[in-house]
Amino acid sequence: MIDRTGLAAFLRRRRESLQPEDVGLPRGRRRRTDGLRREEVAFLCHMSTDYYARLERERGPQPSPDMIASIAQGLHLSVVERDHLFRLAGHNPPPRGAASDHVSPGMLRILDRLGDTPAEIVTELGETLRQTPLGVALTGDTTRFTGPERSIGYRWFTDPASRQLYAPEDHPALSRLFGCGLREIAGLRGPDSRAARLAELLYPRSEEFRALWDEHRVGVRPDTVKRFVHPEVGLLELNCQSLLDLDQSHRLLVYTAEPGTESYERLQLLSVVGPRLAP
């Protein structure tokens, strides 16, 4: 059962405790509000201001689990706070750990400060959860996929267009990385895991994946330099730095170019070109 009073009070307290710079928003001038404005929270949570305001006023319908998950992420809640919010709204909390899409507040704060750098937060299955604007300009909006297609490894073996972003000579190594990586994760998480289900879907669909899966090879690791073939600025050789959230098994990937190189100049141009559609 929903606890409307508790839910409203918790939302108000969390909103008032956050400042715009805490969530990647500009402060602006003549700001008198203590904490975030309701319209700012609504923007962060991808909902109307009226809908969010009704929750703080103990009105409106019971929010769905998807709405609560969006609010939890928009307010930069910890996993414990997220679970509390779900219970106040009358829902059971979603799973924690590797199966969770909830990005930790610390990861979000770092990502918010990387607006002028290509960066993304991904799950262990290569599902993009968040991107910086320049990250979208580099790879397209890869948060838009649903179902198995959310995983870059799944797309790699089922959608030839997904390979166009990468240098052709790197394709064999990337196939090994995605195929053997899925084998390793499935072994770690067990036969009932999302990784195992992805493998079950891929095995009959891709001959290349079947060959890699049947090798039973693990321990393949990505190169620190990734080469992207952007349709407008050309080849980009970028260093990839990774930050791991051990609790959620999420990774923050940050892409940079060595100053003075052609890739560095092209990365500067990319910030002017702007976002593009994902392949």
TrEMBL record:
Name by which UniProt lists this protein: Helix-turn-helix domain-containing protein
Against InterPro entries, the record matches this protein to: Cro/C1-type_HTH, Lambda_DNA-bd_dom_sf, MLTR_LBD
Q: Where is the HTH cro/C1-type domain?
A: 35-82
UniProt source species: Streptomyces zhaozhouensis
- Source species taxonomy: Bacteria, Bacillati, Actinomycetota, Actinomycetes, Kitasatosporales
Coiled-coil residue windows: none
Molecular function (GO) terms listed?
DNA binding
